[in-house]
Structure formats: C-alpha cells, structure tokens
# Entry
Amino acid sequence: MSDMSQLYQEVILDHNRKPRNWGAIDGANRHADGHNPLCGDHIKLTMNVTDDKIETIAFEGNGCAICKASSSMMTGAVKGKSVQDAETLVEEFRSMTTGTLNPESQESHLGKLKIFAGVKDLPSRVKCAILPWHTLHAALHSENTASTEGQDDPVPDSGIVA
Amino acid sequence: MKIDQSNIEKIRADFPILNLQVSGKPLVYLDNAASSQMPKQVIDRIVRYQQAEHANIHRAVHYLSELATREYEEARVKVQQFIKAKESREVIFTRGTTEAINLVMHGYGRSFIGKGDEIILSGLEHHANIVPWQMLAEEKGAVLRVIPINDQGDLLQDEFEALFNDKTKFLALSHVSNALGTINPVKQMIAYARRCGVPVLLDGAQAAPHQAIDVQDLDCDFYAFSSHKMCGPTGIGVLYGKADLLEKMNPFMGGGDMILSVTFEKTQYNVIPGKFEAGTPPIMAAIALGAAIDYLNDIGLDNIDAYEHQLLDYATEKLSAMPGVKIIGTAKQKAAVVSFEIDGVHPHDVGTILNAEGVAIRTGHHCAQPVMDRFNVPATARASFAFYNTEAEIDKLINGIRKVQEMFT
# Structure
C-alpha cells in the first residue's frame, strides 16, 4: 500500500478526531481492558448486556488513529446487536484484516468497516485495528484483559518485536 | 577522512541497500539506532570467509580450521584495539549487547551481589540493562535504585551521588541513551563509583558506532556493545571486562570450548576469554565485525562523530522550527538521535505515513518504557542518523512530517 490515502481515509481520520461512544459507563456489567504492549495502545471498554443484547457500550484510552477509529466504529457497529451478531463481526473483522476474508468478493456483515481492509498489507498495524475487537470479545466472555500477544496474536508470523 | 559534500556520495556508494526503492521512492534510512546498514566491504568479507575460509575453530589441525581460528582471533584483537582494551583476552564475543549484560549478571552478579545489596541503574536504560538486574534482584533479594532524569533528559548528578551507600554493589549505566540520545557524563560517574568501590558496567550499544571508545581511559569494569549497530552483522556483540574481574567470575554457559578438562567428577574451566565462549561461536560474524571495524577506522570515528553532529544540529534546527512538533530529549550532550512527537498524531501513524514516503524511522517505546513514562508519552517517533545520511534526507523527513500534519488537520 504505497498510497496512504487508501487507509487514512477521511472516515478514519474523523473517527480519530471525534471518537464516538467515548468514555466509561458507570455500573457496566461487562468490561475489559485491551493492551498492545508493542506500541502502547490501550483501551478500556465498558458495556451493559441485557437479555443477550448490547444495550450500551463505551471506550476510552490511548492509541493511534487506526486503533481509535477501529474502536469508535466497533462500538457503533455492535451497539444494539445481539452477542451472537457481535461475535460474528469480531470473527469477520479479524478475517478481513488478516487477509483470509476479502470483503469485496465474499459476503459479510462488515459494511462500513470494510475501510479497514487495507491494514492487511501493513502487518505491523494489523494489531492496532484488531485490538478493540479482541477487547470486545474478552468483555463478552467476561475476561478482563485482552492482548494482541501470545495465543491471541492475530499475526504471529509478522515478526513484530519490542 | 573528513566527511563532507566532496565524498559523501562515495561513502554512500559503499552501501548497496541505500539504492533501494521503498513505496516507489528512494529509501531514506533513519533507523540507525535500531540497526545500521552494511557496506560492501563487510558483505564481501562475509562472502570470502564462507567461500574460502570456513571451518570450526580451536579444534582441528587442518588448514581451514587453523585459518578460521586465526581470523577469529584477529577479529578479537581488532575489537581490543577499537576500544583500547589492555589485552585481547578481555574481549569476549557474545550474541550482542543483551547477552553481554546477561553474562555479567549471571557471571558476576549472582556471585557477588546478595540480599539487601543495591544496584544502581539510570532512568534512561534500555530494557536490556533493566530486566537482567531485576531478575537478579528478585533471585537474591537485592534492591534496584534508579538515577532520575530531568526534563531535558540529563541524569541528575547530585541525586546520582546521593544513591551510593555501603550496600551499593554495582552500577549499570548506558553510555548513550537509545531513546533520547543523551550522552551521559560516564567518565565522571565512573570516577565517583570507583571512589565508592563500586564496579561499573556501561551499555555502549549506542556509543560504540558513533564515537571513539577508550575503556582504559573511561576506567569502566565492563563495556557491552553490538556489531549490527556499527555496520557489522547481527548475532555478534562484545563484552569487554577487566581481566581480574573476568577471572573471578563464573561461566555463563557450559559446553565445549569453555573447558580445559572434563571428567564426570570434575570439570576444569578454560581461561578467559574461552571460559565465556561455550560452543561454536558465530565465527563468520566475528570476522565480519572485524571488517566493519576496519571500515569505520578507515573513515575515522572522530570524523564520523563530527559529521553526525552536523546532521543532528541540522535536524534539530529544522524540527524545532516546525509548529506542532516537539523534540523529546534535549540533553546538553547528544548523539545523533532525535525523538519527537507531533501534536495530535500517534507515532505509529507518523511511521506508517513516512514509510509511504520511503522514510524509515522507529516508532514505539524503543525498549525504554521507563523513559516514555518519565516524559508521559506512550511512544515517540525517532530518527537516528549514521555517517551515510545527508541533509537532503533530513529534508525528506521534514517534508514527510508536513504531509502527516496536513493529513491530520
């Protein structure tokens, strides 16, 4: 990807500047912290799940534009969805950004999230995009932390080291 | 040979990789603090060794083994002269700076540092000079004390001296900070430690490629550095240690080559440096490091130092003049490293966008998280220069930063 405007589109830059669903929900019944130790990206995700439905969701933290925009758009995409539908999106997003799902030729529920397809060409940035989705998965499973390392490493062969 | 307009292109022509196109643009390689590039003189030396000189060393009596052994030991002498060590047996080949520090931790620390003892480190250290000492402190019940840094990135000398007491058993200090470029006043700090009877290890990974080193003048007890930051290959580094200390240390690893005799009852260890070089060493890499030293000596470390400081001054002036760009680390004495942040843009986005311009910089915590915490940033962008860089390349960095700012406004 030599043309950066393919990835750093206005949508991503806008979500980076004005992240949606920013903050923390008091008394949330699901939460998780996501951390990418390699670049310091760190997000805190809080949400309320009632009758298998994500009623409210919010995030805050520090990260690059890719991570922040991905977090912002993730919260918008799963708010109001069932846990099952959210998990489907986690799986599809992960497949798209690691290059096993081509959203142009294969069916998916990704919609606007397709703009992150370009990160598959930037192995060192895949983790930035996936972190919020890992964190969502962890929160839905009531694990309290998510990481982009170890068993959860989405790109174990990317050669990224601290 | 003084480096200037008249010969910089000739020097650049020694580095084949500088002809590379990245993202369709000429490579601008400004990540030299992470790893430097290799001149064809060193590449050719590697090829010659593998084609006509390779065999295992210190073993057989045949032609190739004797030749490889001689070349390997000559490389040791080149290192000795490069750092002005008294004797070549004070030079131990390791895999790199990290292994050299770990060797001292295991070989010296585990024997001579105990419960309640204190180890002094600085707030500028690379993880390689923190984690081994933490491991030792945990094992032995020793305590780490940290020299604080000021807002410019200089170590606070009064606080440094105040850390010493009768429990202080070791000082582990970077010569030059990899994250900020600070050149520490190591000579005076070593002299102070020496008056307190405390041995000193210098992490010289960022210093050895850029300035002349004289371990006897510094009077440090240990000096560690890596080949791949000084135009040599990866997989080899150096631990210098004073002979009397190395002699009383325990071996770090056991195996072949580090022994005089072995029975199932008792093994007698080899003398230094062999005692610390168990197993077949990276012979090719050591010989290539010797060739890299020859190459650097041909140009002259003082000339390299002077030219890199011109680049540093140029980059510092240009970056300081840019609105929204803040340099992190403005110590009085600096090596050619500039860490910076751009208002409202995460360093990783900076790095990705610069890469599309062919410009390679490092982004992240630079394996120095305590430094990042001190300056309250998660990461920085870092440009680090070598003697084959040019002001025109720094201009490309500046233009790339302008593009980043345009994109993010």
In short: Helices of chain A lie at 10-17, 65-78, 83-97, 123-140. Chain A touches chain B through 25 residues (CB under 8 Å). The beta strands of chain A are 30-36, 41-50, 53-62, 145-147. The two ends of chain A are 24 Å apart (CA to CA).
